[in-house]
């Protein structure tokens, strides 16, 4: 199904406004900004198993609301599973300043959050990078790690061989090394950097990771979703460190909750940014990301600045 012209233009303009290194830096700046206000997001169930997400946020200058539909029934079709928009307002005047493509914001801010976590926490940032899941988030994370971490070598695993090959071709087109692998567990020993961004319907990683592993898990964002086995999660709790993106992970991190781990009190990305934590070369790190409207606000802030200088 062809994307309508106006959607294609909005997608391209949103991408240009949100370069990954600048977006990761903006996310770090937002976490240090005490004026940021992010109410709890609204999640409304939809008929057929989908969900409607309404995610507002503001600071002293920018207000935004992201309205996103998540439709699992679209998996395997030409229609995206995530659709919607981000409305950006000027706080002083109440005027609408920008309308951003919601799925593009979601993809880029999620990957930028993982990038920021890797920049601050990865014991061995040199790669190769194992990406499990070759959809929109797989591509976003590949691009983000290449742009912001300097990653050049990638291993790609996906339930869809054609999707994995397409992502590998995309990587090679941009001068990167990419290899499709069929067993992500076997690839763990070759890859100190790992990203899981699957539909989160079943565990895709079970084996013991490297001692210097950094794993960013972004696919599961409800208590019922999972992409890491309980044993995999408990390994990090017992032998390494687990960092979550926000305190809301206490109710949303399906991987950790189904592993029987006490998520409340785990360090957050805010703790990492504000307090600083020294990486330990022999201590693996699991970064569990569930999503937060603050990441969308960071994207809106950056897009506003880019638009002002255009």
Automatic annotation (TrEMBL):
Record-linked Gene3D superfamilies: NAD(P)-binding Rossmann-like Domain, ornithine cyclodeaminase, domain 1
UniProt-listed PANTHER family: KETIMINE REDUCTASE MU-CRYSTALLIN
Record-level GO cellular component terms: cytoplasm
Domain of life assignment: Bacteria
Protein name as annotated: Ornithine cyclodeaminase
InterPro entries (alphabetical): NAD(P)-bd_dom_sf, ODC_Mu_crystall, ODC_N
């Amino acid at each position: 199904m062809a994307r309508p012209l106006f959607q294609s233009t909005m997608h391209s303009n949103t991408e240009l406004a949100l370069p990954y290194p600048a977006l990761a830096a903006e996310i770090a700046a937002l976490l240090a900004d005490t004026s940021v206000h992010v109410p709890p997001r609204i999640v409304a169930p939809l008929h057929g198993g989908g969900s409607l997400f309404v995610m507002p946020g503001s600071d002293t200058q920018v207000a935004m609301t992201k309205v996103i539909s998540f439709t699992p029934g679209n998996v395997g079709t030409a229609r995206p599973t995530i659709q919607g928009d981000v409305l950006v307002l000027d706080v002083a005047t109440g005027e609408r300043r920008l309308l951003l493509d919601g799925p593009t914001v979601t993809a880029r801010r999620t990957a930028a959050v993982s990038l920021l976590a890797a920049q601050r926490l990865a014991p061995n940032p040199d790669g190769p990078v194992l990406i499990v899941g070759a959809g929109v988030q797989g591509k976003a994370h590949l691009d983000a790690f290449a742009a912001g971490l300097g990653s050049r070598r990638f291993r790609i695993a996906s339930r869809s061989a054609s999707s994995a090959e397409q992502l590998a071709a995309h990587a090679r087109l941009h001068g990167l090394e990419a290899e499709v692998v069929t067993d992500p567990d076997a690839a763990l020993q070759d890859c100190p950097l790992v990203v899981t961004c699957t539909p989160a319907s079943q565990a895709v990683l079970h084996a013991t990771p490297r001692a210097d592993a950094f794993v960013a898990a972004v696919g599961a964002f409800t208590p019922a979703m999972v992409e890491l086995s309980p044993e995999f999660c408990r390994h990090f709790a017992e032998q390494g460190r687990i960092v979550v993106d926000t305190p809301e992970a206490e109710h949303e991190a399906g991987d950790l909750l189904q592993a029987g781990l006490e998520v409340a009190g785990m360090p957050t990305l805010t703790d990492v940014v504000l307090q600083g934590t020294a990486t330990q070369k022999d201590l693996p790190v699991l970064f569990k990301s569930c999503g937060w409207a603050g990441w969308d606000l960071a994207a809106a802030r950056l897009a506003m600045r880019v638009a002002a200088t255009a």
